[in-house]
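We modelled the chain as a single entity of 121 amino acids. Its sequence is:
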Amino acid sequence: MNKIHSERPSFIYKQVLSHRDKNVSKEYKNYVKKIPMLIKTNGLAATLAFLKVKEDKSKEYEFIYNSLKKWLEKVFNNDKEYENLIENVMNMESNEYRIFTKETLSLFKWWRRFAESEIGE
């Protein structure tokens, strides 16, 4: 578990930098800031579904969804791809769902910091 705590900032920092280099809009920062509240209000599965729907309309949402999926695969699935992340999350036992949610919220703490510091005004 300590390895996860040390890898989380490094992983998301690299993701933010790669997104910055792809000229994401300033809205990216705003989306990153809003997602933790969406998770707390609606739950992880509903938030993932929201991101999945929005990814077709916005490259920023696509970056967020794909980065989050990549992290969850890395942490919980030994770098194997989830065929359908949303379906997997919806079919989890409540304890596992809480663990996924907690890990996602922990990731977003770092994500918000790095997005604010690395994405322009």
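As a brief sanity check on the tokenised model: The radius of gyration is 14 Å. The helical segments are 2-21, 27-42, 44-55, 59-76, 85-90, 94-118.
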